[in-house]
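wait is this the right file?? whatever heres the structure
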């Protein structure tokens, strides 16, 4: 029995089972009694709506996971990887071009399979619950731009990785690692000003009461106001959000216009303070370092795997090649990646708590943060009581109940201290 084949099968089955069990447990926990404060906050009608929403989204995610897995297994077991290898071999003699075509076509097939699923999510589920504001034109334009961006950035990256592994021997993984780290640094640095504006319009804070409150806060924490923007999230969805992104002078905090519609200036300043917290506490840099460590491990494993003939047998491919090895690696590495994902989510949640504490310590009306989070949960029909396993696998932010409790605890300590 080929051990690589076994590992890939086990990885696929475990990943599928784990996420599906987490989904089902999460739906079941809708029946658990909701903490009194949350029940009062949501009210009976919204609580029922949020339960319906969670059920529908879960059903959709299980169906999506199952169909993608079925298509993948069919492609694999009917010799799809070998067939595609033959196709790109006929096209060109260059290993680099073959590799780019091979990985590119697989990525294209994956995104082609995802578009109908995304369309269903946007135009059926999100519309049914009143979230969607995307038109078909915007939807298709977004996908096209995403694809073009993926082709340019992903293509450059894959070409670099292939070229290094084709020519640099044993130290290829190390050189790849350095290249990848530099690449992600550049994307993080330029992304906010070059990539994000392809999808959203960024405008400076408009004049008025909110701007005055923001100016006062930005002065107080010495965050430059010209880096605070409003973005037109309302073009796509009624959902509200805010984020911090970028490095150095190109850093940006963006508040969705939908957020501004739904919250008071005091709440918006508290949300802004949370985002400034991410900046002040260097969460972006931490994220980059974690990503770099992760990539280093992955590339080292890749180098080890490429020399294993069993890997190509497991893929059903007759001739070993770098591009087939790369795809085989992605399959074998998936469980380790999922484990690291749990860790990354956990770090992200602790960063959220830390950014909340920063906001509570610096915002003029700290209590407004809890109000804002409550409103966001109700408006977004967030699961009132998510299951622990589901949170571990999927939540980059703490569930509302825990987050509010941490805020209360911090305010009590601050009061008595
Ligand atoms: Zn945050």
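ok assuming it is, sequence goes like this
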């Amino acid at each position: 029995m080929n051990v690589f084949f076994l590992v890939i099968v086990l990885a696929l089955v475990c990943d599928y089972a784990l996420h599906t069990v987490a989904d089902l447990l999460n739906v079941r926990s809708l029946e658990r009694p909701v903490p009194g404060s949350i029940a009062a906050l949501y009210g009976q009608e919204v609580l029922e709506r949020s339960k319906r929403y969670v059920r529908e989204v879960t059903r959709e995610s299980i169906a999506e996971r199952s169909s993608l897995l079925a298509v993948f297994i069919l492609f694999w077991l009917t010799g799809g990887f070998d067939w595609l290898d033959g196709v790109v071999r006929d096209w060109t003699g260059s290993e680099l071009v073959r590799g780019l075509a091979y990985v590119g076509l697989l990525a294209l097939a994956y995104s082609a399979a995802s578009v109908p699923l995304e369309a269903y999510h946007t135009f059926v589920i999100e519309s049914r619950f009143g979230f969607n504001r995307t038109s078909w034109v915007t939807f298709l334009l977004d996908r096209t731009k995403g694809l073009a961006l993926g082709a340019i950035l992903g293509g450059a990256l894959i070409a670099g990785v292939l070229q290094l592994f084709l020519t640099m021997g044993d130290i290829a993984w190390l050189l790849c690692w350095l290249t990848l780290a530099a690449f992600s640094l550049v994307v993080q640095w330029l992304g906010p000003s070059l990539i994000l504006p392809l999808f959203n319009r960024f405008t400076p804070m408009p004049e008025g009461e909110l701007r005055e409150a923001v100016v006062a806060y930005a002065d107080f924490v010495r965050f430059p106001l010209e880096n605070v923007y409003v973005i037109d999230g309302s073009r796509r969805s009624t959902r509200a959000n805010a984020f911090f992104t970028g490095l150095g002078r190109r850093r940006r905090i963006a508040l969705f216009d939908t957020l501004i519609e739904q919250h008071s200036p005091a709440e918006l300043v508290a949300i802004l303070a949370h985002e400034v917290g991410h900046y002040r506490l260097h969460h972006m840099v931490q994220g980059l370092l974690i990503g770099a460590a992760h990539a280093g491990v992955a590339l080292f494993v890749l180098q080890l795997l490429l020399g294993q003939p069993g890997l190509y047998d497991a893929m059903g491919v007759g001739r070993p090649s770098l591009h087939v090895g790369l795809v085989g690696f992605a399959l074998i590495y998936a469980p380790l990646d999922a484990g690291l994902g749990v860790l990354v989510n956990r770090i992200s949640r602790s960063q959220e708590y830390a950014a909340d504490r920063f906001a509570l310590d610096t915002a003029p009306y700290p209590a407004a943060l809890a109000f804002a989070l409550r409103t966001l949960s109700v408006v977004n029909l967030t699961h009132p009581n998510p299951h622990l396993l589901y949170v571990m696998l999927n939540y980059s932010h703490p569930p509302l109940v825990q987050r509010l409790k941490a805020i209360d605890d911090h305010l009590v300590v601050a009061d008595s201290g």
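The two ends are 65 Å apart (CA to CA). so i think its the right one actually
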